[in-house]
Amino acid sequence: MKDQIQSTQTEALAQIEAISDFRSLEDARVGILGKQGSLTKLSAGMRDVAKEDKAEIGQLLNAARQTITASLDAKKEALQSEADAKALEGIDLTLPGRSVHHGSLHPLTIIRHEAIGILRRMGFALADGPEIEDEFHCFDALNTPEDHPARNEKDTFYFDSGKLLRTHTSSVQIRTMEGGKPPVRIIAPGSAYRRDEIDATHLSVFNQLEGLYVDADVSLGDLKGTLEYFLQEMFGSETEVRFRPHFFPFTEPSFEIDVKLHAKGQAPKWIEVAGCGMVDPDVFDSVNGNRKDEAYSPAGVTGFAFGMGLDRLAMIRWGIKDIRLLIENDTRFLKQFA
Ligand code: PHE
Q1: Which domain range does residue 41 map to?
Q2: Where does Mg(2+) bind (predicted)?
């Protein structure tokens, strides 16, 4: 028995030694240690061993099993590192790795999030409206007469149905007031469309953010304070803001708002960022007409509205010289905002 154990072990070790692939290694393991394996069969002979020899033979069998198992393990490891080395052959491990490119938010998205954040802190809620509008919500309800140049086919995209691509987000003012009673304090960011010649400062689609605040006692002072605060949050607390009298059909009085820009190496200059004004009573009247009530009676409520170009704000913030960069999806431009 002892000799058999010895020779089985010697044979097994020699067999394992000669192995050069995983498959044969597994076969060898089964052939030696498996149910029908050579060593397993030997172990079965234990029952015929004389009682006084059992302990010694048992130990020898165990030792053989351990030695063989260790040899199998060692071979497996050797084969594995051989395989690894082969896989790495011809690969230069000192080459720098490939970097992962992280995407980033588009500058317009960054500006929109920021603008919404500031105005929400002041109590404005988000409102929405369709980009394909009717003439009523885009013009008539906003007190814009039939012959106003903005209604011209040369300035506005019309569909055959008579609908149009909204030329400003001010239509959301009307829809919001039609849908609910005062007080109203909303902002509506979104696209607006105009048939402009495309150049460094004009696109046929741009991004506006409209605001509307209507309540019992809204004053011009509220309008000024709100927009000054907004622009100083946006561009820094030192930012100078100027209200310049202007005309819009839907507000009276109306203003354009400029901020003073201090670009490096240039004389400071005023740049227009928004239009605003006190809601014209005619606008309230036409909303009431549509609502069939007097919820927005000009005797009971006043309000202010503003609309600004988010593209313009982004261009000011980052000194972007050409608005077309905002829609060209050139990664050399976009990755600067990562
Ligand atoms: N709708 C105006 C524009 O597109 C901006 C504006 C909005 C002006 C609200 C006054 C009040 O230029």
Answers
A1: 2-87
A2: 252
User: Is the distance from the beta carbon of residue 304 to the nearest atom of ligand 1 less than 6 Å?
Assistant: no
Distance 173 CA to ligand 1 centre (A): 10
* Mutate-to-test residue for ligand 1 from 148, 155, 167, 170, highest number of ligand atoms within 8 A of CB: 170
Dihedrals phi, psi of 214, to nearest 5 degrees:
-130, 130
- Calculate how far, in angstroms, residue 300's C-alpha sits from the geometric centre of ligand 1: 23
Q: Is 306 in the pocket of ligand 1 (CB under 6 A)?
A: yes
Q: Are residues 50 and 145 in the same domain?
A: no
pTM comes to 0.73
Confidence at 152, pLDDT banded by 50, 70, 90: confident
Torsion of CA 91, 97, 101, 102, to 10 degrees: 130
Question: Are residues 273 and 143 part of one domain?
Answer: yes
Same domain, 171 and 284: yes
Q: Pick the atom of ligand 1 nearest to 254's CA.
A: 10
Pick the closest to residue 304 from 265, 267, 275, 325 (CA basis).
275
Average pLDDT over residues 122-129: 97
Mean pLDDT for 16-39 is 92
Could you tell me if 169 and 208 lie in one domain? yes
pLDDT at 226 over 80: yes
Count of the separate structural domains present in the chain: 2
**pLDDT at residue 71 above 90?**
yes
Main-chain phi, psi angles of 44, to 5 degrees: -60, -25
Q: Are residues 81 and 113 in the same domain?
A: no
Instruction: Decide: 249 and 148 in contact? Cβ < 8 Å.
Output: yes
Alpha carbons within 13 angstroms on the beta-carbon side of residue 135 total: 17
Distance 311 CA to ligand 1 centre (A): 15
